[in-house]
Structure formats: C-alpha cells, structure tokens
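Entry type: protein chain
Record version: 2
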Amino acid sequence: MEKLVSRNSNYIAVHKRHSHTPTQPKSITENTLDFSPVANSAANNDDDHGDYDNNYLIDKYKKTLKRQGIKRQKTVSNICGLLTLRQALAAQLEVNSNIKCAAENIVVFADMRTCLDFIVRLLSGDVSKAILENPGNRNVKSVLSFNSLPFKEITIDDDGLITERLSELDELSALAIVSATVQDPLGVSMSLQRKQYLLEWTRQTNSHVVDRGAIQGFLKDTESPSLWQLSGGKSVICIWEFASILKPWSQMCCAFFPEELAVLARQLKVVIGGEVALNEQFAMHEFIVDGELEKTQKHRELLCLEKRRMFNLACSKIFDGKIRMMNMNRSSKLVFDVSGEIDLSSVLECAQRVEIPASCLSMFDSSGVSSKMLIDLDKISLERIPEKIEALQCVMDVYRSRGCNV
C-alpha cells in the first residue's frame, strides 16, 4: 500500500510538472494528495466529506467549471439534466458498476437531499410509511420529517439491514430506504440473501425500495449483484451520489427510475423544476468523459486504505486489543467495536484533545444500546496521522496514570 501511495504521489508530481500553470517552488507535502477538511467544514449540514485543496484532479474540475461558466454555451436546456451528461452517466454506471439503464430513465439533481425529497413526493400517494436503517444518515430522516412521512428503523449488522425483521412490521405500501452497497455510516454491504429477501418483501407488500447506491463514487459491488440488477431494473429506485468526492464544489447526484416510474418522474420534474446549473453539468460531463472522476475516486480509496491500516494498528497497540475494527467495515468512516472494559467516553475525550475526528456511534435495538467509536478518515490528512497517534499515546498515558479506565 505504501508503494501504491508513493506511486500515485509521483504521478501527481509529474502531472504538475507538465501543467501549463506557472511553476513555483513547492514543498514535498504540497505535491501529495491532501484530503484534509477546511476548519469550518463541521458547520456544513452534510459534513461527510472534507476539503481537497491539494488534489490536482479537484483543481482541474474547478478550472473546468470556471471555464464552462465563461463560455456560456448556447444549449437547449433539459429539466431532467443535459442529455449528454445523462448518457455519460449511463455509460459510466455500466462500466464501473455493471448497472444498465437508459439515459431517459436518469434525472439529475443538485444534491442528495433534493433528490430524495423528489422521490418521496413522487411516491407520496403510494406509500404510508418509510423503513430506515439504524444507524443511518441523518439527512434522510430530516427529509422524511419535512414531508410528514412517518418512519420505522431496522438495525444494521455485519450483513447490512436485518431484513428478517421486515415481516414483524406488518406494513403495506412502505418505502424502504437502504444503502446496500456501502452503508452509511457503518460501511458494511448487504448480503445477497438479504437483498433477495428485501426484494421479495417489496413484491409481497406492494412497497418500493430506494437504494442510495454508493455515496463515494462509481464503485463495483464485487460481493453480490446490486438491488437494481437483482430486480431486473424493476421496483427499485437508485440514488447515485457520483460527485460526492467533489464536495463542496459540486454536490450533484442522479436518480435512475424503473420504466414504470420514469415517465411519471419526468412529468413531476417539469412541474417542480429545479434545474442544475448548466455550467456545472457541462463541467461534470467533461470530468466523467475524460476519466478524471474515476481517477479521483481511486486516489481517495488508496488514501483511505492507508489511513485505515495506520489507525487500526495504532488502536490495537494502544488499547491492547480491547478496541477492534468492526467486521466488514470498509468505508471512509472507520468503526471500532469497544470492549466493556474500556470507558469509551474517556477514549473519545483523549482523541478529541489531540484533534482526531472521533465520535460515539450509538446503536439502539430491542436488546438495548451498544456504542461504537467512529473515526472519519476524510477529516484528517494522511501526513498528520503519525503525529496524532503519538500524541494520543501520550494523552492516554496521562489518563491511565490518573486511574482512568482507558
């Protein structure tokens, strides 16, 4: 992994040497990818992603966005999104995620919240309740509350949503909102058996499923087919936040609808409006076609893998195996199971003192409440991790000398 990161760093340095921008003296750290957030990123309602100032791919997108704004191209607008962009999205989804859908079935939205709100309105006459993951994304709950749609939560384990509990709800015409590929925030994938169970439940109860897809970009689900594939493109609506890596400069996402809902979706979009800025769509189309979006995602994945390795080794050593990485966790949010012998609140206090982005993740179930420790890897740069780990060890030693159970 160290070789891979080094290799990509060299590639970035070569790219910069051949760019047309004026050359200036740069330090070594300026030539490496840095995914550290800006100081005020926590104020953002959706703070899942940080700021990526030193990533040349992000810089290229910003320049493309500015250039497209200056051009002010004369193009016939489409309320569902530019046809060329939707065609590029359809092609990319098939190549990277083995998902086949027509450009006519895709609608482009400014952000995920707008997209989810649109879907809830589209199905408002067909559903009476929503089924959510526990723990889940807080933005999903806020959208449902805004639309006055009641919801029930089902616990997540290592295999994703515990779908067997759907039969206990005795619900008809419900809306299940899931993250089958990479669950947020636990980072687990739904097993093939549970995906099949969910689709069968959907058929029997005349319900709908919204799959939030992969919020990190175009990803392949190598463990099992997607819900869209298993359903044959029926009964499942997919939200694909393909540009999440580009936040905050772009929060665009798309939704692709099954054939029976695609026409209704296009009609509703005309009524509701809310077209995404044309220059942003042009820039995103160019970014996808040139392969830059995929490169950005791959670079970020390499960094996350290295960050996970460093934090996992450090926590195993510092806490003597009493804090272990959660099974099947593979997202940019590193989740740890914490032994009952450890005082989690003291551990979090130590981590926060040295500015490690750690927080407590509480999971509620019929059996009680369990707590896990979550470290958001997007909020700390790779270069700063060694010093943070060393500082954490020092703080932990002080706490232990005072008799704290850490």
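Comment: The first helix runs from residue 2 to 17.
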